[in-house]
Design brief:
single chain; 342 residues; alpha+beta; 8-stranded mixed β-sheet; 7 helices; 14 strands; 24% strand
C-alpha cells in the first residue's frame, strides 16, 4: 500500500443513507502525489460552469443555470475514461466469505480501497474519504434537488443511489429540469462514465453467472455532491449483468467528507445523561460502560460528517469552457432541444 494513507473502520452512525455493511475511512496525507489534481477530478469556472476531467481529457461539461432550476450536460470523447484495473478471476475467488455478510463486505472494501490507493493515477486527493457498502432505493423515494443555493448546506450526507438502469443509457447531451422532479433526475442517480458493453460480451456473460449465484463483486461509485450523482468508477459491466439477471448489484460508495460540530443543546445533553444513568443502574458491565461512553461522546462532542466535492480552477475560466463547448457542438450534429447556452 502507498505509504501515508491510513485505513480505519467507519464508526459513522448518521450518514442518513441505507448502508449494507461495515465500511472504511481513508485518511490521505497532505504530501507527495496526494497534493496534485487526481486523475479524475472536477474543475470549475464562474457562473456554475463545470468540467469533469479524466487523464487530461474532458469527460463531461456541465452548466447549472443561475436560478438553480436547470442543469445541462455534454459528454466529451476521452479514449479511455478513468478506471481501476480489471478484476481477475483469482482476485474474485480470493474473497471466499459468504456473499453479503459483514466479513464479505469488509474484504471487498479493503480490496478496492487498496486498489484506489495503489492505482498509478488515483482519484484520491488529500483529505478524508469514506468507502461504504450502500443499498439502492426506489427512485420515487429519492429527495428532490435543492432549487436554490440558499438550500445547499455545506457538508451534507450523500444521497442514496437509485435508478441503476441509467448505466444502460449513454446520452451524448441532455438537460435536466430540477423543478420537475423526474425520477431519473433526482439526487442519487447513477451516471455512467462510458457506454454499456454489448449484452453478448464475454465479460458480461461471466458476470451474469456470478450475479445468478450471488458472488458478484461490488461496483464502485463516487459521489459528486454539486451534481448529486454517483459516478460509476468501476463495475459498469457488473451492474449491467445484475440488471440482466434481475438482481440487485452490490454497491460500494466512495466520497470525500468533512466534519462539523453540532451546536450545544441542553435538552439533548440532559437527555443523554438521564439515558446513561438508566443504563448503568441496570448493570454496569464493561460492555454497558463502553456503550454509554460512546453515546455520551456522541451527544456532547460528536462531529457531523458530510460530503463536499473538491473542484479545481478551470484554466482559462469561463471563456475556455465556452470555447470547448462551442467546438463540441460544431463537431456533433445533435439537435439541442433545451435553451441555447449562450
Amino acid at each position: 500500500m502507498h505509504p501515508g494513507v491510513s485505513f480505519t473502520a467507519d464508526d459513522t452512525k448518521d450518514w442518513h443513507l441505507p448502508v449494507a455493511g461495515p465500511g472504511l475511512l481513508l485518511d490521505v496525507p497532505a504530501k507527495g502525489r496526494w497534493l496534485q489534481r487526481p486523475a479524475l477530478h472536477l474543475e470549475a469556472a464562474p457562473d456554475y460552469r463545470l468540467r469533469l476531467m479524466s487523464g487530461g481529457q474532458s469527460l463531461l461539461w456541465v452548466r447549472i443555470a443561475s436560478y438553480w432550476d436547470r442543469c445541462a450536460f455534454l459528454r466529451g470523447t476521452p479514449h479511455v475514461p478513468w478506471r481501476l484495473p480489471a478484476l481477475s478471476a483469482p482476485e474474485v475467488r480470493a474473497v471466499a466469505q459468504e456473499p453479503g455478510t459483514p466479513p464479505w463486505w469488509e474484504a471487498w472494501a479493503w480490496h478496492l480501497g487498496r486498489a484506489l490507493v495503489e492505482a498509478p493515477a488515483s482519484v484520491l486527493h488529500t483529505g478524508r474519504w469514506c468507502l461504504r457498502p450502500l443499498c439502492a432505493i426506489a427512485a420515487d423515494l429519492a429527495s428532490r434537488h435543492a432549487i436554490s443555493t440558499m438550500e445547499w448546506e455545506f457538508g451534507q450526507p450523500p444521497a442514496p443511489p437509485h435508478s441503476l438502469d441509467t448505466v444502460l443509457r449513454f446520452q451524448p447531451a441532455w438537460e435536466e429540469s430540477w423543478w420537475q422532479e423526474l425520477p431519473e433526475q433526482k439526487p442519487g442517480v447513477l451516471l455512467p462514465l462510458r457506454a454499456p458493453s454489448d449484452a453478448d460480451d464475454g465479460r458480461i456473460k461471466s458476470w451474469r453467472k456470478r450475479a445468478r449465484d450471488g458472488t458478484l463483486p461490488p461496483a464502485l461509485l463516487l459521489y459528486v455532491d454539486i451534481l448529486a450523482k454517483w459516478l460509476v468508477l468501476d463495475g459498469h459491466d457488473r451492474v449491467h449483468a445484475a440488471l440482466l439477471e434481475g438482481v440487485e448489484p452490490p454497491l460500494l460508495g466512495l466520497w470525500p467528507y468533512v466534519e462539523t460540530r453540532r451546536a450545544e443543546s441542553r435538552v439533548r445533553e440532559e437527555g443523554a445523561l438521564l439515558g446513561a444513568e438508566f443504563q448503568l443502574r441496570a448493570g454496569a458491565t464493561p460492555e454497558v460502560i463502553d456503550r454509554v461512553n460512546r453515546q455520551l461522546v456522541r451527544s456532547f462532542d460528536w462531529p457531523e460528517r458530510g460530503t463536499v466535492t473538491r473542484a479545481w480552477p478551470l484554466a482559462g475560466g469561463r471563456e475556455a469552457w465556452r470555447t470547448e463547448v462551442s467546438a463540441w457542438r460544431r463537431r456533433n450534429a445533435i439537435s439541442w432541444d433545451g435553451d441555447d447556452w449562450d
